[in-house]
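Progress narrative, Year 2. Work on DUF1801 domain-containing protein from Robertmurraya kyonggiensis advanced from sequence curation to structure prediction during this period.
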Amino acid sequence: MVEKNREIDEVNKFILNLPPDIQNIAISLRKIILNTSTELIEEYKWSMPNYSYNGLVCYLQTAKNHVNLGFHRGNELQEKDVNKLLQGTGKALRYIRIKKLEEVQPEAFTSLILEAMRLNE
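Result:
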């Protein structure tokens, strides 16, 4: 269960303004992130929710038809990505694009978030 005080108002407002289907995906991903570790801190930066632990870990980036669960050091996560979920070719960022709520994979996402936290230790 997510402790309410870990959810910040800016992110609540951000999610409330999303279209219903995108909102459901964002809510689901936010729960997974916050349930992964009580050490993760929710922040609102660069007009989107970001989660940090000894530095940036992951973020939620929304678009009209999808939500990206992004990893700030995703390039370093690729070998741990056993399900080959990460996309992107940038210098560091990688993301998982979710177009439907059914595509959310709590176990796979949780393990990547934990690995991303380990990179910051």
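The domain at 4-119 is CATH 3.90.1150.200 (Aspartate Aminotransferase, domain 1). The chain is about 30% helix and 20% strand.
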